[in-house]
Amino acid sequence: MTEQQTATVHNTHNNLSPEVSQFLAESPKTQLELIPQLVSSGDSGWEVLMTFLQLSQTKTPNIVIGKAYQALYQVNVPKTLDFLTHHFPNGVIPLKSERNIDYQGLNELLLKQEFQAADTLTRQKLCELAGEAAVQRKWAYFTEVEQFPSTDLHTINSLWWVYSEGKFGFSVQRKIWLSVGQDYNKLWPKIGWKQDNNWTQYPNQFTWDLSAPVGHLPLLNQLRGVRVAASLFSHPVWSEHNW
């Protein structure tokens, strides 16, 4: 964050409107519910969300920050677009990679909640992480997953988690897996990958929006067994970050 941005945030803190103060005082759940109302109220509501995002520039991105950013992006008028371009030229989630992989395309798809396309691109990015052989075969071995850099997994998971209101992401799937005693036979139906003991058929039987079960996306190739999922869920990244 630049000195100018820090000064802007400091000045903003000192000149909060009652509407912004009220929004900041609410719980994250209530804030999520208020965001569509603020968007529909027009310019005054947009100002609340823009101020909120300015105040959040030093914070780790969360689902409220992501939702506010998404909402202003979808307003798609010069005022909000200029604000986002000026203050968040690269979005709200740092697209860090230890292997120089470009996650901007994934960022844009998830920002727009184009989940099916984002799921396909996620698999491609995981293969890129695994190396050229995985790119050629179009899937990764569990031994390759074990070697994924934590930085990259954190980036991919953050994008899914933040732009799905906390509903999707590997970390979400892992929490459910832990909650069912690490039993994959219980996990698959819980996240909608199996129905009546039959595998959910790709792509038409999967749900590509937020009405899906929690943890439904992104997909792993469960037909190859559980070893890739096991390697992913036991990766060190989950102990390095608080999900």
TrEMBL record:
One of its GO terms (cellular component) is outer membrane-bounded periplasmic space. InterPro entries: ARM-type_fold, GUN4-like, GUN4-like_sf, GUN4_N. This is GUN4 domain protein. One of its GO terms (molecular function) is tetrapyrrole binding. Residues 11-89 form the GUN4 N-terminal ARM-like repeat domain. SUPFAM superfamilies: ARM repeat, GUN4-like. Residues 96-236 form the GUN4-like domain. Pfam families: GUN4 (PF05419), GUN4_N (PF16416). Gene3D superfamilies: 1.25.40.620, Gun4-like (1.10.10.1770). PANTHER family: TETRAPYRROLE-BINDING PROTEIN, CHLOROPLASTIC.
